[in-house]
Amino acid sequence: MQDILASWFVQGMKKATNDMWLKGWDERNGGNVSLRLTEDDVMPFKHAFHAEPRYIQATEPVKELANQYFIVTGSGKFFRNVALDPADNLGLVRIDNEGHGYHIVWGFVNGAIPTSEFAAHFQSHITRMQVTDGSNRVIMHCHATNIIALSYVLPLNSASFTRNLWEMSTECLVVFPDGIGVLPWMVPGTDGIGLETAKQMKLHGLVLWPFHGIFGSGPTLDDAFGLIDTAEKSAEILVKVLSMGGKKQTISTENLIALAKRFNVTPMPDALK
């Protein structure tokens, strides 16, 4: 029988959470990650499932996710500890037939539960499944330092924030041509912020929570991490540029249009104005 601790999804979560902690994005128990899995993904490891899975009621029905599996980080768990004890810090859950709740089928061995942001993850998973024909399987939330810093000084609208990030690095428009969605400040861990994030996820793979952090999505853990990493690197450059007195030259609208044409991407129109 195969060891679930050696599975690609447990190993992937170990690497992703460690990479995020090393970046300084996930202090203490900050941040959370969920990865949607298929029946084929988990089938070889069902022998490791709990004999009596705990059941948790969802705060909002998620019928679109009925019978889906997710591996997710735990509430109050430190990312730096995931690699040391995955079964304590991660859990594998299965949504029930009606989408009213989920069973913890593996992990969270000491009574833990999924991240308090799980409701927000569910809503974003539903949206990204719909807009990517099911290819997006990861939702990743972290406290990316420079992006948070910029939320204090840049206008809190998607077009302005996107344009500023695009101008700081040539690759940004190519990596996230759909820009970054921006929410007003909202209380985290609520259905409200989850629903508003999901609305932005219809248009953007990245969503900023001002003064708090960022939500990113992608087909794989590496893709979601790389998306956030690219935006955060651009934000770091902008923080340095602002500290040196601001831009004296930059990537122009014409440059951005030429870039989009070369790499066959469709830029967010409002950020080109």
From TrEMBL:
Catalytic activity line of the entry: L-rhamnulose 1-phosphate = (S)-lactaldehyde + dihydroxyacetone phosphate
Main location per the UniProt record: cytoplasm
Pfam families documented for this protein: Aldolase_II (PF00596)
Cellular component GO terms held in the UniProt record: cytosol
GO biological process terms, semicolon-separated: pentose catabolic process; rhamnose catabolic process
One GO MF term attached to the UniProt entry: metal ion binding
Residues annotated to bind Zn(2+): H141, H143, H212
Active site: E117
Subcellular location, record wording: Cytoplasm
Cofactor: Zn(2+)
Domain of life: Bacteria
Stretches assigned to the Class II aldolase/adducin N-terminal domain: 11-239
E.C. designation(s): 4.1.2.19
Bound cofactor: record note: Binds 1 zinc ion per subunit.
Pathway(s) served: Carbohydrate degradation; L-rhamnose degradation; glycerone phosphate from L-rhamnose: step 3/3
Keywords from the named record: Cytoplasm, Lyase, Metal-binding, Rhamnose metabolism, Zinc
Complex formation: Homotetramer.
Family under the similarity heading: Belongs to the aldolase class II family. RhaD subfamily.
UniProt xrefs under NCBIfam families: PRK03634.1, rhamnu_1P_ald
Described purpose of this protein according to its UniProt entry: Catalyzes the reversible cleavage of L-rhamnulose-1-phosphate to dihydroxyacetone phosphate (DHAP) and L-lactaldehyde.
Protein known as: Rhamnulose-1-phosphate aldolase
Lineage: Bacteria, Pseudomonadati, Pseudomonadota, Gammaproteobacteria, Enterobacterales
